Structures are given as structure tokens and as C-alpha cells.
Amino acid sequence: MWVDLILFFVLFALFAYIFASVTITNLHKLYLLFHFAMMLWPFCQFAIKTTGNPTFQLFYVKLAFVSSPLLTTGWLLFTIFLTGQSKFLRRKISLFLFVPALLAALGIIVNPNGWFVHPVNGGYIQRTYGPIFWFNITILMIHFIVSLYIIYLALVSDNRPRIKKQVMHMLRGVLVIAIFTLVDIFLNVVLSPYLPVIPGMASLGILLSAIMFVIAIHRDKVFDIVTIAHQDIIDTIEHGILVLDDNEIVVEINQSLLPHMNLRIGDRFNMVAILPHEPADGHIECFLHTYRERPLERTEIELLHPRINRYISIHAAPIMVSGLMVGRIITFQDITELRRLIDETILQNKILQERNEELIKIQTELSQTNRKLNQMAITDSLTGCYNRHYLTQQLENEVMKNRRYQISFAILLLDIDFFKLVNDNYGHLAGDEVICNTVEVIKHSLRRTDILARYGGEEFIIYLPNTDESQAKVLAERIKSTVESNKVVIENITQSVSITISMGLLSIKDFSVENILSPKSYLNDLFESVDKALYQAKNEGRNRIISVVR
């Protein structure tokens, strides 16, 4: 009876060792669950033999066998996590693997009608087993087979040799515990009527399996995944990484930094020694001042190191634990290529900016040219007022709108009297000056909405929108008198030149007749009417207004 108790204490000692010596992660927790289940079996086997009370004996038997599905479940989960075969944790597969184990444990606890275990001679030191026991054994075998399959997948995959080595340790442990358990069942259950009970077989298998795994943990660092991953990450980073303690002693240096610094773990680090000796550089002095005087602050510097002719970025940050500084981490990054790209980008941006400014200048010039061209297309080059083409386009829309809404409007057609004599007496340049001066005088007599256009030669046409006959006559008289009283001063001519104008005035107030005409035909008809009025004014002696109404 003492064999199982001794094995229990050995297993407990191993449990305490693992718990105390290894950083606890999820993988550790799964192993500790598995290890704890291993401890329960020999303890319960011992406890059964220490009491004569059948109730306590049954409790220990149930506890021992409840630990068996817990043992294989923990082992299976540990296998899945260690090999990375997470697909076995999908819902359907998990239900298939773990629900039967829970049902087996429930059947062991309830023991309905003695289907799990029957006492012999009134106690459970000697006992017989029922179908729930064999169902539990079947579940254990299924978990054993699934574990072997997962291990097989891990061994034939592309895992690194370190992972495969860990999987091989697990395979040995599975085989040992499975073989001893099967031998125990065969000798102490199947052949129990014929052979004396051999104690401690399953417990011995559990112990040997645990010992093998503990050796692997201690020797091969099976559980040091965090440390290994940490070191792998540190060594694969391209930046140089230096970790110092609070006395500036190097405690870690990664592979990227080793070729460039003559430092080893345990050496004292001197920041001044690695910086270029340029006392006039204020950036270096500021960096060193912060590094020395304010160690709790992060500080960094970018510089061109003359020894290696490379741009480097140095970043120093404190390592804080519970509010206290326990060391520093210093990173070194080669930013030569980055600086080259930045300088090139700045240069390209400058070139692009210059090109954009040139394009904007060209665009402005084109815009101004387009405005001038548009202005030239709609204005008369001599007088600056609108030309006949523009007026015709405008009036085609205006007069049709006026007809639609029956808005009165008027058209004035005027001609400078005896203009040919001005050209003959003073020359064409003087004639141009008379025309331009007359246009300016007429503009001052018009309203903001009126449109003045050169109709041709010395003839001008004025569109008076929203104007009835009386208003049109008043405007016409004002224009005529203003032009008549105007004195045109011409260079190199001693006396000023006075002119008069003849005008035809057409007022539109009846919109019922021309409904069938197109805009262009209707406008030509209006021009013809006002032209006749102007012709009549000339025939009647000029310097007068002939008004017609339609």
C-alpha cells in the first residue's frame, strides 16, 4: 500500500518543481492540469487502502477513475497546443473528443445500479467493474489514438527541428503511460480471477511518463516558448537593440548590433564613446544632456556618423517596473536609405512645385488670353462696345422672352450725320476719334441694363429692355441732345468738332401679330422696321428722331 503513496509524493514534488521553476503560460497551465490528474491516481490508490469504510473507499475509487478522463483530456489538449494543431479545437471535433469523456466521468460519479464498480466482500479494495468502466477505458483509448495521430501530423509537417524534438518527447510519454495502463488493466482487471493483484502498475507508468517529460522540460527547454520567441524576435529585427541594467551594464545585445559594436554581455556601455566627437553640434549635446540628467525620459537623435558614413537614428527609453527604472533599452536604426528617399522626395516635390507654379502661370495667362479672345469676339475693336453679332445673339433670346411674357421693349438705331465730311475734312483717324468719343457720351446717357452695339460703320444700335414708348422717347431725346452738345477735341485740330445724330426708334407693345415668326426672322423684321425709321429721319433733314410703334 505504501508504493502508491510514495509515488504520489514523488509526483507532487515534480509538480512543485515545475510550478516554481517555469514561467506560467497557457501551455504550462495545460501541463499542470495534466500533471495534477497524474497525481490523483496514485494518491487515491493509497487512500483506498487506508480506510475500512466502504463509503470512503468508493469515494477514492471514483476520484481515481474520474481523474483518468481528466488525465487524457489534459494530455490531449496539451498535445494540440504544443503541436499547433488548432483545427482539433473546432466545435464538432471538440464535442466528439471531450463530451464522451465528461459523460464517462459523470457515469463514474453516479455509478447507477453499480454499472461502474461493485464491491467484493463488502468493500472496494477488491472490486469488479461494469460497462461504464469499459466505456471509460474506450474513451481513454480513443484519446490515445487521437494523440498519436496529432503527433504524427506534427512529425510529418514542416515544423522546425526544435518543435519535432518536443513532439518526440511527448510521443515517448504517451507510449509509456498507455503501455503501463493497458498492462495494469490486463493483469489486474482481466486476469484478476487468476492472478494476484500487482499494485502500482498504472502509477508507475504515470511516474515514468512524468519523469521523461520533466527531463525534457529541464534539458530541452520545452516550455521556454516565450523566451525562445523573444530571442528569435530580437535577433531577426533589423534594428540594433541593446538592453542595459540600471548601472549601464549590457544584459542583452541582438545579432544585428553585434558586428558593429565591440560589446558583450556584462560590458559597461558608454554612450559618449559611440557618438561622433563634434562638440559644436548642439543636437548631440542636447541628446547627451537628456540621456544623463533625465534618464526617465525618452530621447532620440538622428545623425550622420562619420566613421561608417551612414545616417543612424538612436533611441533611448527607460525600462520601468512598478514605477522604478531598472534599466534602459537603446535601439539603433540605419536610416540612410530613408534619408535618401526623403531628400529625393523633397527635391522631387520642389521640382513639382516649380512646375506647378509654371503651369499656374501658364494657366493664368491662358485664362487671361481666353477672356481677351472672348471679349474680342463679342466687342467692337475700335469702340469697345458690343458688336452686331453679340447683340443679335442676345436679342434672339431677349425678344422671344419679351414676346412670351408680353414685356415692352424698344430698339434705337442711330447714325452720325454727315460723317463722311468729318473723314474728308479731318482724316480717318479723326473720324475714329469722333466715333469713339460719341460712344462714350452715349454710354453715359444709358441705363445699366441697356445694350449698346456697333451696327456697322458710323451706325449704332441700342436695345432698351422693359421700356415702353414714352420712356424710349425720353432716352432717345437725351442721347440726341447730349451728342449734339458734345464737343470733340481732336489733336492737331484747332477747333473742336460737333456732330449730330439721326435716330430711328422702334417700340414694341403689341405681341399678337408675329407669333408665327421664328426668333431670327422676327428679329430681322424688327431691324428692318427700325432701319426704315432711321432712313426717314435722314430724309427729313437729319438730327431728329422718327418713332414707330408695333
UniProtKB/TrEMBL annotation:
Regions that span the bilayer: 6-24, 31-48, 60-81, 93-112, 132-155, 167-191, 197-217
InterPro entries associated with the record: Diguanylate_Cyclase (IPR050469), GGDEF_dom (IPR000160), HisKA_7TM (IPR031621), Nucleotide_cyclase (IPR029787), PAS-like_dom_sf (IPR035965), Rev_trsase/Diguanyl_cyclase (IPR043128)
Entry protein name: GGDEF domain-containing protein
Residue ranges that the Swiss-Prot or TrEMBL entry lists as coiled coil: 335-372
SMART domains attached to this UniProt entry: GGDEF
Record key words, sorted: Coiled coil, Membrane, Transmembrane, Transmembrane helix
Pfam family, one: GGDEF
